[in-house]
Design a protein that fits this description.
By secondary structure, the chain is of the alpha/beta class. The protein has one domain: Ribonuclease H-like superfamily/Ribonuclease H (Nucleotidyltransferase, domain 5, 2-Layer Sandwich), CATH 3.30.420. The longest helix is centred in the C-terminal third of the chain and has 24 residues. The N and C termini lie far apart (about 60 Å). This is Ribonuclease HII. It catalyses: Endonucleolytic cleavage to 5'-phosphomonoester.
């Protein structure tokens, strides 16, 4: 069973991001503050859940959370500031967009930067330990998936609807065949380096 709180603060916010390892599309973060009476049997790290379950949970989270927000940071900025800074920026944006000011922040992972002097704790595998981080992981993942499905319509040859911008064999082949788009992260190694030169 996931725990509701890490701290004693009433307005404890959980935050997580999705899309860090992708070759295209934004890195997306969500921030969620849950009420003290929040319960859900199935809520867990988004990677453990089926797609239909994630969308079902998203509706439940949005209905029952005290406040939530989602933010994207797009490829151009990712290329400028690097993916780690972009992930933290996306989390900062999401937290700043909450309707209530967070009194404490719990972050999935081990990297974060202070935001407005709000105390925080980074928690490795936090999305499998705390409900608010798990909830944030579901919102970040589903909103990012929606965005990838939308840009898939523009560039169907990359099949983003299915691979969501992750470095699948098919996605890399499409980059080889069709080149890159404005949605690709130019600072990422989009194609594996060839092991031997073709002479």
């Amino acid at each position: 069973m996931l725990k509701l709180k890490y701290s004693d603060f009433k307005l404890e916010c959980g935050t997580d991001e999705a899309g860090r390892g992708c070759l295209s599309g934004p890195v997306t973060a969500a921030a969620v503050i849950l009420p003290d009476n929040f319960k859900h049997k199935v809520l867990n790290d988004s990677k453990q859940l089926s797609e239909s379950k994630r969308y079902e949970l998203r509706t439940y989270i949005e209905t029952h959370a005290l406040t939530y927000a989602v933010a994207h940071v797009f490829p151009k900025e990712i290329d400028n500031i690097n993916i780690l800074n972009a992930s933290i920026l996306a989390m900062h944006k999401a937290i700043s967009n909450l309707k209530e000011t967070a009194e404490y922040i719990i972050v999935d992972g081990n990297k974060f930067k202070p935001l407005n002097d709000i105390p925080y704790e980074t928690i490795i595998k936090g999305d499998g330990k705390y409900l608010s981080i798990a909830a944030a992981s579901i919102l970040a993942k589903t909103y990012r998936d929606d965005y990838m499905a939308k840009i898939h319509e523009e560039f169907p040859q990359y099949n983003w609807k299915k691979n969501k911008g992750y470095p699948t064999k098919e996605h890399r082949q499409a980059i080889k065949d069709h080149g890159v788009t404005q949605y690709h992260r130019k600072s990422f190694r989009l194609l594996p380096q060839q092991l031997k030169l073709e002479l």
